[in-house]
Design brief:
Layout lengths: L2 H8 L2 E2 L1 E3 L5 E3 L2 H10 L10 E7 L10 E5 L5 E5 L8 E7 L2 E8 L9 E5 L16 H12 L5 E3 L4 E2 L15 E5 L19 H17 L5 H27 L16 H9 L1 H27 L5 E6 L8 H5 L8 E5 L9 E2 L7 H6 L3 H11 L4 E4 L7 E6 L5 E4 L2 H15 L2 E4 L9 H8 L3 E4 L22 E4 L8 H6 L1 H8 L6 H19 L4 H9 L5 E5 H4 L26 H5 L2 H12 L5
Parallel strand pairs: 4-8, 9-10, 9-22, 10-13, 13-16, 16-19, 20-21, 21-22
Antiparallel strand pairs: 1-18, 2-3, 5-6, 5-7, 7-8, 11-12, 14-15, 14-17, 17-18
């Protein structure tokens, strides 16, 4: 073992691993050196700072010598020996020259009740005309319609802030900032141009921006807005400054003049003073988005939904967006999050997202992670963590090089997750699909974090390959037919995903692939006992999993899927509207039928 290997191991690197297809992989030395370079030295003021997860309400043994404990409430306690029991929250202790962030967490989140709900892409909603994209108020209307049929939640893809000056960067999973909202979903009351069954983002974004500008010009001020902006503090002001700078220099700060790449520079501060009205505009759009989203959650709860909205947090953020501009040191540069090769992606995946540095998270008490969770939990009763495998280890790919794993502080991240979910009274769903690290699912279950079980993949993979029966599903999970990255119920049966992959040259023998699919369809129908959507939903309703999600695309009769992973322009990702308008989805016989099925299975409370 070399000194270099020792250095890599101490940094948490795993460069020899088994990929999702069962093959051993080894990242080259150049990859390791690039990842180490991305983990640059901590700033001087953080080199003797760390974090520790402890059990809330229990005394904690501590080392010899005096310590000073500062509780989250701001109380200073001096002592020696064991620490007193601490309430749930974030506390700090200074001891022997070290600052230790104490994450006092409850041991486990409570199990949610046995319920069902619906997931749908927000952008796909429309009413009256196929114009713009789905709005925050439409969530409230849909939630009320779903509640009348017994649904407990309404799930959507991430609604993080995007890039207002780039009409071609609209994936909800590649955001500019995960603690701010996407303003494209604000309802201004304006009539937007129709673009048909596929969203025309350049045209729609221009029209939405014009509508927002007109609405802001008519805005006479509000005490509620002023109070909200004051509470936002420095973090909000940096975000709106970034948005205003984007209007001048483009959406990605890596291409800005150097003086504007530092949010603390005199040039940036002068710009903020000179463009005060533009900063006010961007603050107002965020306030409006939050107001409308909060109102939809209130409508959902008032209609009887125990959870209301079910939101989603993207696994990472764009390397040159607002989040990384404001918190540069927190993110590793020159590397991308991704996934190793597996059966579905033989070449692996490079997502173009900046990873959070585990050492910076630990040294700063995970405040950024907590704030990211908090920003979503304010508006929902269920929260999905995309690619929760990243809490155990993240796959980093240096620019132009193969990737490797970086160990993450799982137990501390889970402690923060339990603290924030407990305070919000919410349940957490972890997207635990892909190459699962040993022990992760056990750790998630021990924390009360539920997993995902996707019916098209729930099979006896180590035996006959048969589809699992409903009683074999994991109880502590949310079960569904598919996801936004997979074919719809009808699309799977018709092999539309095979057609797309064949057109892209990724399937050598489409005929054989279709034949295999038809045998899979027959096998699933045999287990489900039916070959229609009603049969699928009866199957899901009987699943042992506590939560079940049906998909709005399936209720609306959609054939094509929302997103085809691994494509950018070859497939109309994130652009397809539902075949039915919002009112048509609420009144669809398939929704009423599904509600009755779930009621009969005891999922309506």
């Amino acid at each position: 073992m070399s000194d270099f290997d020792d250095t890599c191991r101490r940094a948490g690197l795993t460069w020899v691993y088994r990929d999702g297809a069962g093959r051993m992989q080894e990242a080259p030395e150049d990859s390791r050196r690039a990842v180490l370079a991305a983990l640059t030295a901590l700033p001087d003021d953080l080199r003797q700072a760390t974090s520790l997860a402890i059990a809330a309400g229990q005394a904690k043994d501590w080392g010899p010598g005096p310590w000073v404990l500062t509780t989250e409430a701001g109380e200073d306690i001096r002592g020696e020996g064991p620490l007193p029991p601490l309430p749930v929250g974030y506390h700090r202790i200074r001891h022997n020259g070290w600052l230790v962030h104490l994450l006092a967490a409850p041991p486990r989140l409570p199990a949610p009740p046995r319920r069902w709900g619906l997931t749908v892409p927000l952008f796909a909603l429309w009413e009256g005309a196929q114009a713009g994209m789905g709005t925050y108020p439409q969530l409230g209307a849909l939630a009320e319609g779903l509640a009348r049929n017994g649904a407990a939640f309404l799930g959507i893809n991430p609604i993080h802030a995007g890039f207002p000056t780039d009409a071609h960067s609209f994936s909800p999973y590649a955001p500019s900032h995960r603690r701010r909202l996407n303003t494209l979903h604000i309802d201004t009351g304006a009539t937007l141009p129709e673009t048909g069954a596929l969203i025309d983002y350049p045209r729609s974004i221009r029209a939405q921006r014009a509508a927002l500008e007109d609405a802001f010009a008519a805005f006479k001020g509000s005490a509620a807005f002023e109070a909200w902006r004051g509470e936002g503090g420095t973090a909000l002001e940096e975000f709106v400054t970034h948005q205003a700078l984007s209007e001048v220099h483009g959406g990605y700060w890596g291409a800005w003049p150097l003086p504007f790449q530092d949010p603390k520079s005199p040039d940036v501060q002068r710009f903020a003073r000179e463009r005060a009205q533009r900063l006010r505009f961007h603050a107002w759009t965020q306030w409006l988005a939050e107001t409308q989203l909060a109102d939809s959650q209130a409508r959902a709860k008032a209609a009887g939904m125990p959870f209301g909205l079910y939101l989603d947090i993207a696994v990472g953020t764009h390397p040159h967006g607002a989040e990384t501009w404001a918190e540069r040191d927190l993110f590793a540069q020159g590397v991308s999050l991704g996934a190793p090769p597996d059966l579905l992606g033989p070449s692996g995946q490079r997502w173009g997202l900046a990873p959070m540095r585990p050492d910076m998270l630990r040294a700063t008490g995970y405040s950024a992670f907590a704030q990211t969770l908090r920003a979503q939990l304010r508006f929902c009763g269920l929260l999905r963590i995309d690619h929760i495998l990243g809490l155990e280890r993240s796959f980093w790919l240096p620019d132009g090089l193969p990737g490797l794993y970086v160990t993450m502080p799982r137990d501390e991240l889970l402690a923060v997750l339990r603290i924030e979910a407990t305070r919000a009274g919410a349940a957490i769903i972890g997207e635990d699909l892909g190459t699962i690290p040993d022990g992760l699912r056990g750790a998630l279950d021990a924390s009360g974090v539920m997993g995902c079980r996707v019916a098209m993949f729930e099979r006896d993979w180590e035996g006959t390959g048969a589809f699992l029966t409903p009683d074999a599903y994991t109880p502590t999970a949310l079960a569904s037919w598919g996801t936004h990255d997979l074919p719809t119920w009808q699309g799977w049966r018709q092999g539309r995903d095979i057609d797309w992959r064949a057109e892209l040259g990724e399937i050598a023998d489409p005929g054989a692939a279709h034949a295999t699919r038809q045998s899979e369809v027959a096998a699933f129908d045999a287990v489900a006992g039916a070959a229609d959507l009603e049969g699928l939903h009866r199957f899901l309703a009987r699943a042992a999993s506590t939560l079940v999600a049906v998909q709005g695309e399936d209720l609306a009769g959609a054939v094509e899927q929302c997103n085809l992973p691994g494509t950018l322009h070859e497939h109309p990702n994130w652009r397809r509207r539902l075949p039915l308008p919002l009112s048509g989805l609420i009144s669809a016989p398939s929704l009423g039928q599904t509600g009755r099925i779930m009621h009969d299975a005891g999922r309506n409370g």
